[in-house]
Every structure is written in structure tokens, then in C-alpha cells.
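Hey, resending since the last one bounced:
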Amino acid sequence: MTFWVELLVSILLLIGGFFVLVGSVGLSRLPDFYTRLHAPTKATTLGMGGILIASMILMSYEQGYLSLHELLITLFLLITAPVTAHMLAKTALHHENRALKRTRSLHLMKQAREQQAPSAANEHE
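The C-alpha cells again:
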């Protein structure tokens, strides 16, 4: 294996591992649900992307052809993580989970809780 491939894979693994570590520490240390939600959706997604891209480069070099399995997993993570985070935040909002007192836009949370789903009559107009 060439030095440059090893260097690139090593750098991507270190960066990915760092972001996974930061996301894991953030998940356990942040004070409330809404701030904890950012750790796995932001940092860990970036970390897993780095690790999977390093694996893709290494496997492509070793096998002699492009390995797309890791790329597909990375794309799946990048697509599903924000959607999952949005759904979790919306559910927590409607279950009235408390936010930190120092949160800036608490009045917007109250407005969002009062919103109702569109009725069937309004959808046809």
C-alpha cells in the first residue's frame, strides 16, 4: 500500500474518531433534551461519514475497484439523521419537554405547541 493512501485513510479515521468521541461526550454531558439532540445528529454523523469514507478508500485500493457499500451507508446516514432529529424534536415539543431557562426563543416553543395539524377539509382547498 502506498504512503499517501495510508496517510489519507489514517487522517480520515482520526477525524472521524474525534467527531464520534465529541458527539458521544456531548450526548452524555449536555443538560437538556434539545441540546443533547445536536450531538448525535451533527458530530456523530460527520464522524461516521469520515470513518466510512476512509473504509471506502481502503477497500477500493485493496480490491482494485470502487467499493460503493460504504458510500451508500454514508448517504443514508446523511439523509436520515436530520429527519430523525426533526421528528424527535417535534415529539419532545408536543410532549412539552422542558428546555433550559436560558434558551432564547422560549416563546416560539409555546407557539409551536399550539399549532394543530391541518384538517382534511383544509387540504382539499
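The chain has a mean pLDDT of 83.

Sorry for the duplicate.
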